[in-house]
Amino acid sequence: MSVVNPSEQSIASFGATPWRPAGYGQSARIPLIEAADVVRLFDDLDLWDCWPLAHEDGRTVEHLGRNWWFFLSAPVFPDPVERHGHARIRLVSLGEDGWKDHGNAFPDGLTPGSREWAGSAVLMDDGRTVQHFFTAAGRRGEAAPTFEQRIFVSEGTLTEAGPGGWQAPREIFEADGLRYVLDRQDSGAPGQIKGFRDPAWLRDPATGRAHILFTGSAAWSDHPFNGNVGIATLEGDTWVLGNPLVEAIDVNNELERPHILVRDGLYYLFWSTQTHTFAPAAVAGPNGLYGMVAESLAGPWRMLNEGGLVAANPDAEAKQSYSWWVTGEGEVWSFVDYWGMAGRTVEEQPELLRSNFGGTPAPRFMLNFDGERVTIA
User: Fold this and answer.
1) Region of 127 on the Ramachandran plot (φ > 0 left; ψ -120 to 50 alpha; else beta)
2) pLDDT tens digit string along 331-377?
3) Cβ(77)–Cβ(353) under 8 Å?
4) Of 150, 157, 175, 202, which sits most exposed with the smallest number of CB within 10 A?
5) May I ask which residue range the UniProt record assigns to the signal sequence (predicted)?
6) 282 in a labelled binding site
7) Cis before 300? omega within 30
8) Distance CA 346, CA 325 (A)
9) Distance between CA atoms of 261 and 325, rounded to whole angstroms?
10) Backbone CA torsion sign across 282, 283, 288, 293
């Protein structure tokens, strides 16, 4: 790979579309989450980021009358922020009789990190093979948790018991230190660490090629807020790292859990972000679901609505939900974060850290798609 002059490259940005919102308009706000909406699936586990077992074309799999969902999970801690250091992927299914727990998705000791972070799962068109992509955070056995992030896949099968039979995971591609930050990150804080995580599968209907989208950080920029959306493409049996699709240098540090939904010949790229990950000099948006649209993966990408904002928490409860995932059906899933705060803060009332953290699936909603406008149905 040829070395590019840094000053020239910071202008070219490897062809990534810049996200430079000047405002966010009056995009629809997600309805207030009420006490009746906070239905915990576990007394002893918190749940957050989720993704479904999906077909190659993005449709949610229905198997044995159930949809199969993966959630990040961790024991209940007095401070829910601790969950990130203990995360395991949990498999649950949803049918007419409600939720059913199937335990940790991966057996103990199978995955190579000290924690398991978010990913995606796809049922291949043979109707049997499942590929589960996930983030390995840190390294198994490390004395203290690091924030190193690596992307792996484990192959399994879909049986009468659901997806399982996972094989030894293999790392599918690495950060290159040129387009994407490559750093062990021995320490960090939420919202400030650099990204190489959240692999999301996509089969491009126009080409038939398989891709992985992921949360990255621009290695060509030393700005502390340098998030981007990365992509890799399957070439034969090898995943090849590609140029980022979108960059948010001097705007935002984390474009989390990016994924693409193809509808009506348009490619809708979605990601989640939070107010506190915007750069101090940027026009900060609310905690919400953001996105861009293009006619193809090659772009050019255009902001949806005004500023890219698709759906946001209501101003009265700015942190009530987070980590939105748009299914192939256009249904939006997330988890209940800090709800019912009514203007209170955890800094002033630390007991709210536990009492007002949801740690469970949030109410779902549908999206309306109308070209460059995507709104809550």
Assistant:
1) left
2) 999 999 999 999 999 999 999 999 999 999 999 999 999 999 999 99
3) no
4) 157
5) none
6) no
7) yes
8) 27
9) 10
10) negative
**How buried is 93 (Cβ within 10 angstroms: 0-12 exposed, 13-18 middle, 19+ buried)?**
buried
| Two structure tokens written together for 146 | 């690091």
CB 258 within 8 A of CB 273: no
**Full set of structural domains in the chain with CATH:** 13-365 (2.115.10.20)
> Quick check: pTM over 0.85?
yes
* Structure-block tokens of residue 136: 């390995």
What Å distances lie between residue 224 and 10, 217, 334, 361, CA to CA? 14, 10, 27, 32
CA distance 246 to 229: 5
The answer to whether the beta carbons of residues 115 and 174 sit under 8 Å apart is: no
- Nearest Cα to Cα of residue 304 among 312, 317, 337: 312
Q: Name residue 323's amino acid.
A: S
Residue 86's SS3 state is coil
d(CA 193, CA 210): 28
> Are the beta carbons of 200 and 212 closer than 8 angstroms?
yes
The residue with tokens 């207030």 is 32
Within 8 A by CB and 6+ apart from 300, the residues are 17, 294
What is d(CA 366, CA 186) in angstroms, rounded to the nearest whole number?
Answer: 40
Q: Which residue type is seen at 26?
A: Q
Alpha helices, H only, the chain: 6-12, 352-355
Consult the annotation and say whether 69 binds a ligand. no
Cα–Cα distance list, 290 to 6, 75, 139, 268 (Å): 29, 30, 31, 10
